[in-house]
């Protein structure tokens, strides 16, 4: 299902994609770093090992998940976790 919304991210992994996706737009709207981790399917990752750090106000517009995470063949979901609670992340995908 397509998504175009703000999502609150905290100290537990939150799925940013609510279905399989190939392209994503994402912006960290919070003052803290968030960490993005790809998965193949709806598998919740553990920790931030191999996660992509997204700094405050950093954004990526319409990039493929394969571009973000070329080392994870078949990645089609993205999860996020933050250093603290209440970090707003904008995400859009179809």
Q: Could you characterize what this model shows?
A:
- By secondary structure, the chain is mainly beta.
- It has a single domain, classed as Jelly Rolls (Sandwich), CATH 2.60.120.
- It is built from 1 helix and 8 strands, in the order E-E-E-E-E-E-H-E-E.
- The chain has one helix at residues 65-68; strands spanning 3-9, 14-15, 23-28, 34-39, 52-54, 59-64, 77-82, 87-93.
- It is globular.
- The protein starts with a strand and ends with a strand.
Radius of gyration: 12 Å
Distance from N terminus to C terminus (CA atoms, Å) equals: 7 Å
Helices and strands, in N-to-C order? EEEEEEHEE
The CATH architecture: Sandwich
CATH topology: Jelly Rolls
Give me the count of strands. Answer: 8
Number of helical stretches of at least 4 residues:
1
What composes the largest sheet?
4 strands, antiparallel
Which bin fits the share of residues in helices?
A: under 10%
Share of residues in strands: over 45%
Please give the order of strands in the largest beta sheet.
1-8-3-6
CATH class: Mainly Beta
Count of domain modules: 1
Shape: globular
Q: Can you tell me the residue ranges where pLDDT is under 50 for at least 5 consecutive residues?
A: none
| Overall pLDDT confidence | 94
User: What structural category arises from helix and sheet content?
Assistant: mainly beta
Brief overview, please?
By secondary structure, this protein is mostly beta strands.
Fold topology:
Elements: E1 3-9, E2 14-15, E3 23-28, E4 34-39, E5 52-54, E6 59-64, H1 65-68, E7 77-82, E8 87-93
